[in-house]
Amino acid sequence: MDLVLTQVRPWGGAPVDIEISGDTITGVVESSTGSGARIIDGRGLLALPGFVNAHAHIDKSWWGKPWVPYGGEAGTQGRIAHERAERDSLGIPSLDSTVLVLREFLRHGTTRVRTHVDVDLGTGLRGIETVQRAVDVLGGAVDVEIVAFPQDGVLRRPGVRDLLDQAAANGVAHIGGLDPAAIDRDPAGQLDELFRIAADRDCGIDIHLHDGGSLGWFEYELIIDRTREFSREGRVNVSHGFALGTLPADRVEQTVTELAGAGITWSTVAPVGSAPLPLAQMRAENLRFGLGTDGIRDLWSPYGDGDMLRIAQTFARLHGLRSDAELKYAVEVASSRAGGFVGAVTHDISVGARADIVLLDAENPQDALMRSPRRELVVAGGVVAVEGGEVQI
Predict the structure, then answer these.
(1) Which residues are within 8 A (CB) of 270 and not within 5 positions of it... i.e. 6 or more apart?
(2) What is the pLDDT of residues 88-122, one digit of tens each?
(3) Using CA atoms, how far apart are residues 273 and 2, in angstroms rounded to an integer?
(4) How buried is residue 248: exposed, middle or buried, by Cβ count under 10 Å (0-12/13-18/19+)?
């Protein structure tokens, strides 16, 4: 054993000792001998699995730089144009800012991240390289999966398709897409290219969909068809997918059943003002989904602090969750239930899982969700990354 956390309460249960060897939980016992290990007194604190940020953009942030006023035009096209015009002057993507964002994630107990990293004609693959270097700077304490993300479109920017293919050949876990109708004006064409790359390179797909109403539903149908055609079941995720909460009930029921049947997953940042997802049916169909922060202090929005508990609370409020079981579920969606978004078969406080543990001064997960208290201790991959709310690495 390398580390023992004594007298902690996983998910608010009875106090136990957690034994850690290397980066793995090797024991959850009533009382550990702690032979030869570093002992940390858990003081009866609530223990939760490290949080999973299933949708981030850590390469875009200006965290750590002087305040940048919000500017540019609203809407997806406006934000894309503004970012392209201003990012070079801010040095984006920046290694320093990316490291600082990951450290802020750690401060709030996030130990695993799926991040969309811009791949376009201006930056090439430099953003991916920056994120990989940032992960190395922190010694791998934050486990990061990368989505090569064509923020400025695929077909309308000749050469981007080849960059996505190169990123996949170099080993990124997923390639992304963006509003194939609104951005590329060729939904079938964009999706065909993405799915061909994913099938050839055996990688996943994670596609941003903002289009609403019938257009959004049409894109879901195209994605479902191609998921089956290219044998990508369990390897495709829809990010945002705002239209799903606005469709007629009969169409929602059919679509959720088809999505679940194709093994397609969902991630949301639960933005204020968006339509609630059909949560009850998604759960009944076992359609997996995760939560994420989206951008953090970037040229799209000045908001965000990286706290997944706050995102989980927004998700709970948006969907009218109030009972103890429902509130605990919201915390699970931000942690144990989201392991699949970062390639983890098991992500929990259990033997054999990666040692990602967060200690908080809270009575139970529901209390933690409501108050979002300071993370007293964060163990990330077996490393003590945060003590007393302060990042140690």
Answers:
(1) 291, 311, 314, 315, 318
(2) 999 999 999 999 999 999 999 999 999 999 999 99
(3) 47
(4) exposed
pLDDT tens digits along 344-390: 999 999 999 999 999 999 999 999 999 999 999 999 999 999 999 99
Cα angle, residue 292 at apex, residues 218 and 338 outer, rounded to 5°: 90
Quote the Cα angle for 152-165-341, to 5°.
80
User: CA-based angle 26:30:33, to the nearest 5?
Assistant: 65
Which residues does residue 56 pair with via DSSP β-bridges, in sequence order?
A: 115, 294
Determine contact, residues 61/295, Cβ cutoff 8 Å.
Answer: yes
Structural contact between residues 296 and 304, judged by C-beta atoms closer than 8 angstroms: yes
Is the CB of residue 72 less than 8 Å from the CB of residue 107?
A: no
Which amino acid would we find at residue 384?
Answer: V
Confidence at residue 273, expressed as pLDDT on a 0 to 100 scale:
86
Query: Side by side, which strands form the sheet with 265-268?
Result: 51-56, 110-118, 143-149, 174-178, 204-209, 236-240, 265-268, 289-291
3-state secondary structure of 237: strand
In contact, 162 and 361? CB cutoff 8 Å: no
**Rounded Cα distance, 117 and 131, in Å:** 8
Supply φ then ψ for residue 344, to 5 degrees: -100, 120
Between CA 219 and CA 207 the distance in angstroms is 11
Q: Are the C-beta atoms of 142 and 380 separated by less than 8 Å? A: yes
Helix (H) / strand (E) containing 129: helix 126-137
Evaluate if pTM is beyond 0.90. Answer: yes
Q: How many CB atoms lie within 10 A of CB 290?
A: 25
What would the two tokens of residue 31 be?
């009382």
**Residues 25, 49: contact at Cβ < 8 Å?**
no
Secondary structure letter of residue 67 according to DSSP: P
214: left (phi over 0), alpha (psi -120 to 50) or beta: alpha
